[in-house]
Amino acid sequence: MMLRTLRLTAAESVKLFANPVLYVSLVLIASAAVSGELAQGIFGGQKETVWRNHHAIHLFAYGFRFGMAIATLVLLVFSSMIFAGEFDRGTVKNLLTRPVTRTDVFAAKGVAVGALAAILYGFTLTVSLALALGMGELGPVWDDSMYLMWRDSDEILGHARKAVLMGFLPFLAAGGLGILVSNLTQSSGYAVAGALVLFLFGSLLLGEHPGLFLHHGTYPIRQLEIYARAGSTRWDPRMEEGLLFLKVPLFYIAGFLPAAWAVFRSRDITA
Amino acid sequence: MVAVLRTEGLSKRFGSLHAVEDLNLQVEEGDIYGFLGLNGAGKTTTMRMILRLIRPTAGRVSVFGKDIREDWIGIMSRVGSLVELPAYYPWLSARKNLEILRLATGGLPRARIDEVLALVGLERRMDDRVGTYSQGMRQRLGIAMALLPRPRLVFLDEPSNGLDPHGINHIRGVIRDLNRQEGTTFVISSHLLHEVEITANRVGILKEGRLILQDTMQGILARTVSGLRITAEPAGRAAELLRAQPWVRGVKAEETGALRVDCDPDAFARANSLLLQNGVTVSELTPARRTLEEFFLST
Predict the structure, then answer these.
(1) Is residue A210 predicted with pLDDT exceeding 60?
(2) Number of domains observed in the structure of chain B
């Protein structure tokens, strides 16, 4: 099964990397990240957090947050089309009439969504960080009127590393939501619309509570941004101590994927 | 002969609709099996059940002598199919579309893609985006997809769809060549009865989900004989003599002047001697056949 899944994953990558929408999406993500940082750099004014310039992590938090907002929507669009697009075009019958099982096809698509999530996350991170390091400075955060050091360099970098790590699983869970919705309809248009509506609805209704909604991927980054300009707010301690950043998204992934698999396995393919 | 495909009691119900009922198909190795039926007769549903795209309500399917549920992977490495319309990724070239299926199939060299595209006559456009193809070219691509894994058994659902006469002739040649040279078995559903008549050696006719006839093409053609066609001089006298015979059910004059005699097909000798003994000159005496289409519509 492993070999068949790997072959199918390779087939998924051929489709993905030849899709012009992916490259348009990357441009959009980069634009959002760059705009976020530039806007902060231009309109944010000189902060009292470093001696001469903006703090790079502060800028990074802005860029990454904006970029991730777009990246999440991109991941939702791609993941919600991953099955529904095949139903829509009828290409699912081409795949299922090869020497593979439905479980192989499902696993390969799951791996492909995971890989896409990693690519988008890595891309957003790279763009935001590169620009932030170019525009800002690393080092401690100072209060320049009282000459007090609010945050030392190691502390703020450690905080940033944690925030980036904590953001990935909730982001991946958004892909899980897309996979589930993708299996509930045979129309890619309905799947994309459904996934976006569910996500935005969930985000509006439950997004402020870190224990409820799957996507608090940008929450630690938002907190990082405040922290990096010497604001006192840290993230909800339960996120880290209660391992909510792991438990909540894993809970959602564990709900979405088996449900999607059960639907896919039992579906009659009439496309 | 070995049964390459056998269905036993295969049935599919959609709510109260019996799409396919108690279907017992048998396709033997080396057959070109013509699967006939009106729209909605259940041909595509049957193919989908055989290929496990939809679940049968009852019955079982065996391919190459094995139940498809027991050795799906082994069976499908030797099966190709084009079910209903060809499906493809429009933003990719024909070559990339086949590369995806090559990866999904496993064990096929890259060169097989060029080979199969040349076989269906797409070699000059293989690197163009499929979204820019004509309907006929897409159909050729669909057939290439079915033939990609060097299958021993191929299902083609309306393979002539969208093809021009040249394309139909080309694909017919490909099917015949693969059947003769490599022994590939084909199951072809088509509404082009003439196409089936000149390609298939066995035929199954499906009506309202039930298999009402399954026979060799020779056997089917024998059933299309419906009497005699006689060209005689004087025609009027010949018609008069024939009408008077108790074994003749009717005589009709065709526009060409030939007579169409409704009788048992084995009455050749009787009709010939009757006319000759009565001084009628017979210049043509052949079995009168209904076309496959007339036969099909009368079943």
Answers:
(1) no
(2) 2
